[in-house]
Write a structure and sequence with these properties.
heterodimer; A: 438 residues; Rossmann fold; B: 575 residues; alpha/beta; five-stranded parallel β-sheet; 24 strands
């Protein structure tokens, strides 16, 4: 007999679905099936079952081969590396629990490290924009219950956040939206004709990199001021039409993604999108929300916030917390050759950073803590496999709207495999011992 | 835990509960509690408090120190950290931030001021985990958190039908789900209206769709609170905060308590606590000095005439700060006024919150008038156990200014100095407010009422905090202030900012002005038992199934990582 565990939290994307049901074998050791999850989420659970999983730390040898080492040796290497480095970078933190992040920050404080999370190549520009102009937002349930104007700008939830539209934004029948998607008008702004764009009432197929202009044009159109014939490749009539559609709603929301945060103008795009939202609040109710990627990148920003006061790029090397993206951001540090050791947990910079940064990862003393074999683990000196958060160990996570949800454990990790928090706690203890000797 | 014994010798002791008004006395602490000196063994560590002031540790009834909006304030204001960092040293973690300090600094600074308990004033239930994570990471001080109820759909629907018992059953359930302490009620009805960009400016404006008035919500929540007999009373932030002329709305709010009396066994006298009353005591019809005026006298005439209301000051401290409140429409109003960055979060079925930086510039008339009104409320009060020192941290100013507020309350000279030398429009403030006419200077005994005995009693925690009576928690502070010889008002502020010794739950946390321990921090929450209520449980299941974005099974705050050291106050409201 198998049993079904209800209310499981999916540790994949920032949508953080919490209605997953996981069927496990009677002995609780094997996942048999996953219900309600999207294809990516289900795969995340099933992948934990992979027979070829690495279950012991591996040290890369000079010839590129791997030698299995014990967790004790891995703890020792990691602690020595962090204590001996002048300016270590501790990067990632987005695919792990808030408790693990907290322990990591304690270590970083002791050794004087830079703590940065994946926002640095993702929604970091959003965080900077929020520091410029604030952000009017809401929870995803508000959108489900009230929103009748939905704008997806530079994001493609159909593929990146597959259940976003069915759970929160387009289809659900909420309290004041009891006709579901028939209550809602959907606008998509994207240079590509994505699967999300195909569903839209209006698709603005904008010229690439012209988001700032179109956002400005909407702000002009809201006030019925004069526009040129075309902005960002869009005829002005369509822009006035979109502005009217936004104003005529009772509750609207703009969701935005990498298409605006990491294209030309970066944080200035988001500044403008937020100001458009603020302007719209003079006519009706409007919110704006970042489509956060990793399931707990939001949590990393929160924990860093309450412990140090900044959401990413936190430099603790001088003994107190500093923040200066461009100077204290991972890629800038790596490419300028300013760090002398790299610790990665809960992210895969090997796959997402520019090659100039990844090269540094390969050259410097480096540790990658990850349940998977990834491009990062393949270039790091030490790979420490750990339990999957949200599958093999619980822990708190923050959804894209900052709502905290406590992830669940559904099966045991493979025999002897540590969790992120356990590994970090041991490193922390060893670091304290080494610092005392120093 | 290994407990120690302490004898704090020869200090000038102030304790309104015991009626000690600065007499030289010894205070003994053993196994975490205050005891009679005769109960100590010879091993007791002696702390010399000669020439110093000794009190029970402070109790803060209202501050925004943990949770989602507080963290928005931190993360979106890097400028609040500039030149404000303190490096890690000894057992202390790094500290940062001024108006919205990091959790570590929050704990350390309260300890430095000699405080032992702080109530987080507004917890959005859906974000309860976040509040508790921050509370967990705030060292030394005990804390509790008040979930917000005044715009909650369950409450609006039950109270519209006059169903007090169902409201109470829902409240008991939610307190357990969120590990909450009591009932907070922010801009009743107005924040729900904000879901559509609207507001309820008076207590008689019906809430859109729900068709219930703020007056009904206020009175209904008082009745539900007393049905349960919770330790604390209904804690309200009334409608039309910050609006000129709002004092009539405030009087209407306070009058909702008429004829109601406290129930339960926690010893409080009030059924309504009005928070940051300063923001609610304005006359006139604009912020201009021609029109704006203090209505503190009218408000205090009413408060002094009843015995079932308490309030805290919400005193403006003339700083640059960060405002944050569950009063969503107010923060939008504020950003339209000062054009500084606006953050807002509407929370499904429950509440909303907004954050806007604000500069209470002494160069403006209005900041001066607000400063005056906060002080006037306290100086017009007859019973000092009913008025408490707060700055509605960080809304009217950061909590580290409490010692400055105490200085202003204790010294006319210090107040005149502000009017004459700090405020640009001090003359106008004298003209439009009462501050210039008030001679009253409060005593240390009265300050002890306002910061210890009073708030502890109002929170229903007089059996733990607020006095040096044997049997209470071993929370004792020694301030480097000699009430017989120190007459410089600046000395008051210095002493109350940096205590010499602090014992928290019987542990020495501050020794000779240095923080030497992170204490044994507790989270206080209230577990109220009610009769089984199938209707409320069915409503809960339905709302989660249809309208929440999280499953019911994922709503409760459970687990060691959120509340590692709970202290549960049990209430039996079964019939």
């Amino acid at each position: 007999m198998s049993k079904v565990i209800p209310d499981v939290i999916c540790p994949f994307c920032g949508t953080l679905c919490d209605d997953i049901e996981v069927e496990v074998s009677d002995d609780g050791k094997t996942i048999i099936d996953v219900y309600n999850a999207c294809a990516i989420g289900a795969e995340k659970f099933m992948h934990a079952q992979a027979k070829d999983r690495v279950t012991r730390p591996r040290m890369q040898q000079p010839d590129g081969s791997y030698k299995e080492v014990s967790y004790d040796e891995a703890v020792e290497y990691t602690a020595q590396m962090l204590v001996n480095a002048k300016k270590p970078l501790m990067y990632g933190w987005s695919s792990t629990s808030c408790e693990a992040q907290g322990v990591g920050h304690d270590i970083a404080e002791k050794v004087g490290a830079i703590v940065d999370n994946t926002a640095t190549v993702c929604h970091g520009s959003t965080l900077i924009a929020v520091q410029d102009v604030g952000i009017p937002s809401c929870t995803l349930g508000e959108i489900k219950n009230r929103a009748d104007r939905i704008i997806f700008w530079g994001c493609n939830p159909t593929h990146a956040h597959p259940r976003h539209q069915s759970r929160y934004s387009i289809y659900p029948r909420g309290f004041f939206t009891n006709k579901g998607h028939k209550n809602r008008k959907m606008i998509v702004v994207d240079p590509r004709n994505t699967d999300t764009a195909k569903m839209a009432d209006i698709h603005y197929q904008i010229e690439q990199g012209r988001d700032f202009e179109l956002l400005s044009a909407f702000r002009v159109a809201l006030r019925n001021e004069v526009l040129p014939d075309f902005v960002a490749g869009i005829p002005k009539e369509k822009i006035y039409e979109g502005a009217e559609l936004m104003k005529s709603g009772r509750f609207g929301v703009i969701f935005f993604g990498m298409g605006v945060t990491q294209s030309l103008s970066k944080n200035h795009n988001i500044d403008n999108a937020i100001m458009l939202t603020k302007d719209l609040n003079e006519f009706t109710k409007f919110s704006i929300m970042a489509m956060r990627g990793h399931y707990n990148v939001t949590g990393s920003g929160q924990v860093l916030g309450w412990q140090f006061g900044f959401p990413f790029c936190v430099d603790l090397t001088r003994g107190f917390a500093r923040y200066n993206p461009g100077e204290t951001s991972s890629n800038d540090l790596l490419r300028r050759g300013e760090v002398d050791a790299i610790f990665v947990l809960g992210s895969d910079p090997g796959a997402h950073f520019p090659i100039s940064s990844v090269r540094k990862l390969a050259e410097l003393p480096s540790v990658a803590v990850d349940p998977h074999i990834t491009p990062t683990t393949e270039v790091s000196k030490l790979h420490v496999p750990v339990a999957f958060v949200g599958v093999e160990v619980g822990g708190n996570c923050y959804r894209m709207d900052n709502v905290p949800i406590d992830a669940r454990k559904v099966v045991d990790p493979p025999e002897g495999v540590l969790t992120d928090e356990e590994f970090l706690t041991r490193v922390n203890k060893r670091v304290s011992e080494l610092m005392e000797v120093k | 835990m290994k407990m120690s014994e302490y004898l704090i010798k020869n200090g000038f002791v102030f304790d309104p509960v015991l009626g000690i008004k600065g007499d030289k006395a010894d205070v003994a602490v053993k196994d975490g509690k205050i005891v009679d000196a005769s109960d100590l063994s010879s091993k007791a560590k002696k702390i010399d408090a000669a020439g110093k002031t000794v009190m029970a540790a402070g109790v803060d009834i209202h501050a925004h120190v943990a949770g989602p909006k507080v963290n928005v304030g931190r993360n979106y204001r890097p400028e609040d950290k500039l030149f404000k960092a303190t490096p890690k040293s000894g057992i202390k973690r790094m500290e940062g931030g001024f108006s919205v300090p990091t959790t570590f600094r929050t704990g350390y600074n309260y300890a430095r001021m000699g405080y032992g308990f702080v109530m987080e004033a507004a917890m959005p239930p859906l974000y309860a985990r976040h509040v508790h994570e921050e509370i967990r990471d705030t060292p030394i001080i005990d804390e509790g958190a008040l979930p917000v109820f005044g715009n909650n759909w369950f409450v609006l629907e039950y109270l519209k039908n006059g169903e007090v018992e169902n409201t109470a059953a829902y409240i008991a359930w939610l307190l357990r789900m969120t590990r909450g302490f009591g009932i907070k009620n922010v801009n009743p009805g107005g924040t729900e209206a904000w879901g559509w960009g609207l507001n309820c400016p008076t207590v008689n404006d019906p809430v859109p769709y729900f068709d219930i008035t703020p007056a009904q919500i206020i009175r209904g929540l008082i009745e539900a609170n007393e049905f349960l007999g919770l330790p604390h009373c209904m804690h309200v932030h009334g409608n039309s905060l910050g609006e000129p002329g709002n004092y009539t709305v405030t009087l209407d709010t306070l009058k909702q308590a008429e004829g109601l009396s406290p129930k339960g066994s926690f010893g409080r006298d009030q059924v309504l606590h009005h928070t940051h009353l300063q923001f609610h005591s304005y006359g006139g019809d604009s912020y201009a000095s021609k029109s704006f005026e203090s209505k503190s006298k009218e408000i205090m005439d009413y408060v002094n005439s009843v015995d079932n209301i308490t309030f805290d000051m919400g005193c403006v401290t003339l700083d640059e700060t960060t405002t944050m409140t569950a009063d969503g429409p107010f923060e939008h109003h504020l950003t339209e006024l000062n054009h500084l960055k606006w953050a807002n979060v509407d929370v499904e079925l429950e509440t909303a919150a907004g954050v806007v930086p604000y500069i209470y510039s002494p160069k403006t008339f209005i900041a001066g008038a607000q400063w005056a009104i906060g002080l006037e409320l306290a100086l017009f009060a007859k019973d000092m156990t009913k008025v408490f020192v707060t700055t509605d941290h960080p809304n009217a100013g950061p909590f580290i200014r409490y010692p400055r507020v105490i200085k202003w309350l204790m010294s006319r000279k210090a107040r005149d100095d502000v009017l004459d030398n700090v405020l640009k429009y001090g003359d106008k403030v004298r003209e439009r407010c009462f501050i210039g006419e008030i001679d009253r200077e409060l005593s240390l005994y009265e300050i002890a009422m306002m910061t210890r005995a009073g708030p502890a009693k109002a929170l229903g925690l007089a059996h733990m905090f607020g006095s040096l009576k044997p049997g209470l928690d071993g929370d004792v502070v020694v301030y480097p202030f000699n009430p017989e010889t120190d007459d410089d008002p600046e000395k008051i502020e210095q002493a109350f900012s940096n205590c010499s010794f602090l014992l928290k739950s019987g542990q020495l946390v501050i020794d000779n002005g240095e923080i030497i321990s992170s204490g044994a921090k507790r989270t206080l929450w209230v577990d109220a038992k009610v009769d089984e209520n199938p209707q409320v449980m069915r409503d809960v299941e339905q709302k989660f199934l249809k309208y929440y974005s999280v499953n019911l099974g994922n709503y409760e705050v459970t687990g060691h990582h959120f509340v590692p050291n709970p202290y549960v106050l049990e209430v039996d409201a079964t019939q």
